[in-house]
Design brief:
Number of strands: 9
Strand order of the largest sheet: 3-2-1-4-5-6
CATH topology of the largest domain: Rossmann fold
Family: Belongs to the HIBADH-related family. NP60 subfamily.
Order of helices and strands: EHEHEHEHEHEEHEHEHHHHHH
InterPro entries: 6-PGluconate_DH-like_C_sf, 6PGD_dom2, 6PGDH_NADP-bd, HIBADH-like_NADP-bd, HIBADH-related, HIBADH-related_NP60_sf, NAD(P)-bd_dom_sf
CATH class of the largest domain: Alpha Beta
Helix content: 40-55%
Keywords: NAD, Oxidoreductase
CATH architecture of the largest domain: 3-Layer(aba) Sandwich
Bound molecules: NADP nicotinamide-adenine-dinucleotide phosphate
Largest sheet: 6 strands, parallel
Radius of gyration: 20 Å
Shape: globular
Structural class: alpha/beta
Amino acid sequence: MAPKLFWIGLGNMGRGMCKNVINKADVQHPVLVYNRTKQKAVEYSTQFEEGRVEVVDSVAAGVAKADVIFTILAKDDVVEAIVDDLLGSTDVKGKLFVECSTIHPDTTARVSKKLVDAGAEFVAAPVFGAPAMGELGQLVGVLAGPEASVQKARPFFQGVMAKAEINMSGLPYEKALQLKVIGNTFILNMVEQISEGLVLSEKAGLGTQYVRDFIHLIFQGPFAAYADRILSGKYHTMDYPLFPVDLAIKDARHALSLAEAAGVHMGNLDVGLAHLEEVKQHQGEKGDIASIYGAVRAKAGLKYENEPTPGLE
Ligand SMILES: NC(=O)c1ccc[n+]([C@@H]2O[C@H](COP(=O)([O-])OP(=O)(O)OC[C@H]3O[C@@H](n4cnc5c(N)ncnc54)[C@H](OP(=O)(O)O)[C@@H]3O)[C@@H](O)[C@H]2O)c1
């Protein structure tokens, strides 16, 4: 019989991921959903036909009814608090938890131990890809944990939420988070490089168009998408950032902590983190990782906010 599914966390990432599960996975309907701000979950549920989704009032209420529980939450303390809350109020024996948030590997080790000690199964399953990729079912999931548990989680990834999986079946949970945290340093450094390249091209009198062409022709993919997000000016106009500055700061700090523990100096990360902190100061929580461009502009004596490139507004 298809499993009963409970989804916790309907933020930028969770909304698209959960939608793909509701529409494509072999699950019992209604799929249960929970979000801290309940109104968001209620509004979200209206896009589906009646009987497909049910909003629950508490984490405990959802866990009690479900076989498989997905979590995708902002940060470490939120994941820990939700797990402590549900362990204090619900029997989790025999239930499978699939944890998709980007958190420190040590946090994953702690929460997985608590759940497994209480008789649950656990899969660490962070995802790579922006919210738009989540919406399209084009994420890359990184799955670690006991083989049998990973096997149960896989039907929700490739072909449902994800275009591919990095299968770490049989490896300790925290390995998936090591890869996720290291992977996100590539994104931070990419945005840093695009920002510096574009600012230099503007100040050196070359103009940004040729650098944009170069990025699109040589690097493509996320490089091209970030260059356009930057040149469109959206990095300083979005009310709801796509990769919020707070999450990017959390990821950079996790990477620095991993690097320090391993005795590795990651100088690029120091530069990226300093720019993210300037973004936070300038834009508050509306800042995006792409707003690093604004911080680099300001340092070069340009206005933090750019004029949108014609055609990209
Ligand atoms: N954005 C990206 O490009 C991206 C890509 C891959 C992975 N990730 C990772 O995926 C996770 C979610 O990211 P996101 O972009 O979806 O973030 P988001 O839009 O900020 O959503 C965060 C979710 O966590 C909930 N939350 C926050 N604080 C809470 C609290 N104190 N108690 C209970 N719930 C709380 C939010 O509930 P409310 O709606 O009530 O605020 C929301 O459901 C993060 O770990 C992030 O690093 C993000």
